[in-house]
Structure formats: structure tokens, C-alpha cells
Amino acid sequence: MKEIKIESLLTVYDSLDELPKDVMALMEKAMEARNKSYAPYSNFSVGAAILLENNEIVMGSNQENASYPSGLCAERTAIFYAGAQYPDVTMVRMAIIAGSKKKVTDTPIPPCGACRQSIAEYEIKQNKPIELYFMGEKGKVVKSHSLANLLPLVFDKTFL
Ligand code: THU
């Protein structure tokens, strides 16, 4: 018997002001995307923006449905569009901003498990890390240098 310790390293920025300029520009795109969120049921709006290696920026927001499970998170809306539209272009980083319409969300909101699994697929496909930056409506911004860093013990194609 042995124990295995799994660690994740995150960088925490105290505010948007600390972000590198290019990351700030991507976060602004995520904010723009969030404004297009369709979230009449949860009243929780999320925006995501992905920078591609060809300098294109792909944006997505959560899209809800009266049949709740038919809706989709912002991160997957964005990454599936990027995968569908630019199948051979590497994804460099994703910025995510999320918050409730009913209260101020000032803690960083990480992508949900299903989104992590979906982002992992593309990270593995391109064999290059996808950086993630996520935040609430205001306050701290968290950076993960890769998706793998947020999803240890990932289920991937090697098991199939
Ligand atoms: N949501 C996202 O867009 N991304 C996440 O990672 C977590 C949750 C959305 C789904 C739903 O529309 C709302 O937030 C509340 O769960």
C-alpha cells in the first residue's frame, strides 16, 4: 500500500489590474460574451473567451433551456465552437468570468467538472497546455497553467 499526493499550483492575482495586458484583453472578451449569456433559469451568467494561436478569439456564454439539461455552459459553448471552426489551430488560453445576477460574485469561479473534461480533450488533442484564467464579477483572478492541473486522474482516450 502507498499513498499518492496530488498537487495543483495556481497563481492568484489580487485584481484585474495585475493581469498582463494581453490576458486583460481576453478577459474583456469574456465579459463581452457574458453579456450575451442566456440564463433566465439560474440567473447565473458566465462568459468565456479563448485565444487561438492564429490570434482569433472565440467567445461563448452559457445558454440555458426550459429542459434544464439541454442547456450548455459558457466554456463548452466556446470550446466546441473553436474545435468545430478551427480544428487544427492550437488553443492558447481561456478566460472565464462568472456571476449571479442576484448578488455580487467576488470569488473566482472555476469551470465545472464537465467543462474541465471537455477542455481536457482539446488539451490532450493538441498536446499543448491550455492556460485558464477565471474570476467572479470582481475581485481575484486565478490562473491555472493548464487544464490538467485542474483535473488530476483525467479520463482520456488511453483507457478506450
Ligand atoms: N455554468 C457555466 O456556464 N460554466 C460552468 O463552469 C458552471 C456553470 C452555467 C450553467 C448554468 O447555465 C449556470 O451556469 C448555473 O449553473
From TrEMBL:
<feature type="binding site">
    <location>
        <position position="73"/>
    </location>
    <ligand>
        <name>Zn(2+)</name>
    </ligand>
</feature>
<dbReference type="GO" id="GO:0008270">
    <property type="term" value="F:zinc ion binding"/>
</dbReference>
<keyword id="KW-0479">Metal-binding</keyword>
<keyword id="KW-0862">Zinc</keyword>
<dbReference type="GO" id="GO:0042802">
    <property type="term" value="F:identical protein binding"/>
</dbReference>
<feature type="domain" description="CMP/dCMP-type deaminase">
    <location>
        <begin position="21"/>
        <end position="158"/>
    </location>
</feature>
<dbReference type="Pfam" id="PF00383">
    <property type="entry name" value="dCMP_cyt_deam_1"/>
</dbReference>
<dbReference type="GO" id="GO:0004126">
    <property type="term" value="F:cytidine deaminase activity"/>
</dbReference>
<dbReference type="InterPro" id="IPR016193">
    <property type="entry name" value="Cytidine_deaminase-like"/>
</dbReference>
<feature type="binding site">
    <location>
        <position position="112"/>
    </location>
    <ligand>
        <name>Zn(2+)</name>
    </ligand>
</feature>
<feature type="binding site">
    <location>
        <position position="115"/>
    </location>
    <ligand>
        <name>Zn(2+)</name>
    </ligand>
</feature>
<protein>
    <recommendedName>
        <fullName>Cytidine deaminase</fullName>
        <ecNumber>3.5.4.5</ecNumber>
    </recommendedName>
</protein>
<dbReference type="InterPro" id="IPR002125">
    <property type="entry name" value="CMP_dCMP_dom"/>
</dbReference>
<feature type="binding site">
    <location>
        <begin position="62"/>
        <end position="68"/>
    </location>
    <ligand>
        <name>substrate</name>
    </ligand>
</feature>
<dbReference type="GO" id="GO:0072527">
    <property type="term" value="P:pyrimidine-containing compound metabolic process"/>
</dbReference>
<dbReference type="GO" id="GO:0005829">
    <property type="term" value="C:cytosol"/>
</dbReference>
<feature type="active site" description="Proton donor">
    <location>
        <position position="75"/>
    </location>
</feature>
<dbReference type="GO" id="GO:0055086">
    <property type="term" value="P:nucleobase-containing small molecule metabolic process"/>
</dbReference>
<dbReference type="InterPro" id="IPR006262">
    <property type="entry name" value="Cyt_deam_tetra"/>
</dbReference>
<keyword id="KW-0378">Hydrolase</keyword>
<dbReference type="InterPro" id="IPR016192">
    <property type="entry name" value="APOBEC/CMP_deaminase_Zn-bd"/>
</dbReference>
<dbReference type="InterPro" id="IPR050202">
    <property type="entry name" value="Cyt/Deoxycyt_deaminase"/>
</dbReference>
<comment type="function">
    <text>This enzyme scavenges exogenous and endogenous cytidine and 2'-deoxycytidine for UMP synthesis.</text>
</comment>
<comment type="similarity">
    <text>Belongs to the cytidine and deoxycytidylate deaminase family.</text>
</comment>
